[in-house]
Design brief:
The chain is mostly helical. It contains seven helices and no strands. The longest helix is centred in the C-terminal third of the chain and has 14 residues. It is globular, with a radius of gyration of 16 Å.
Length: about 110
């Protein structure tokens, strides 16, 4: 095979019929304000943990909606639960409770 200096990336499309959306459903039931998140990034801009790591609640939101529970499990432990994100949220999403409920989901489903 000839290498022309580029590669073809893996397809990132999702089939939502095959995605595990149990975490998204659990969050919608336990913290309904999660559904009002518009991923504006205000939470990530004030996040103490994001100053030291690649943690981002925007990323968590996307991973939850995509059904990537393994990646959420790896990322959610970086949160320090300081609460700055909750104060900065323009939609009044209780982000601290979202993080707590995600952690609770993983402890219940071990």
């Amino acid at each position: 095979m000839v290498n022309f200096g580029y590669t073809i990336n893996k397809d990132k499309s999702l089939n939502y019929d095959e995605v595990d959306n149990s975490l998204a459903i659990f969050l919608s039931e336990q913290e309904p304000s999660f559904d009002t998140c518009i991923s504006c990034g205000s939470c990530s801009g004030t996040c103490t943990a994001s100053n030291f790591t690649q943690f981002s609640l925007r990323k968590i939101n996307l991973l939850v909606l995509r059904g990537d529970t393994q990646a959420v499990s790896d990322e959610i432990e970086k949160c320090m639960l300081c609460g700055k994100c909750t104060l900065a949220c323009p939609r009044n999403v209780n982000t601290r409770n979202v993080v707590l409920q995600i952690r609770r989901f993983f402890t219940l489903n071990k």
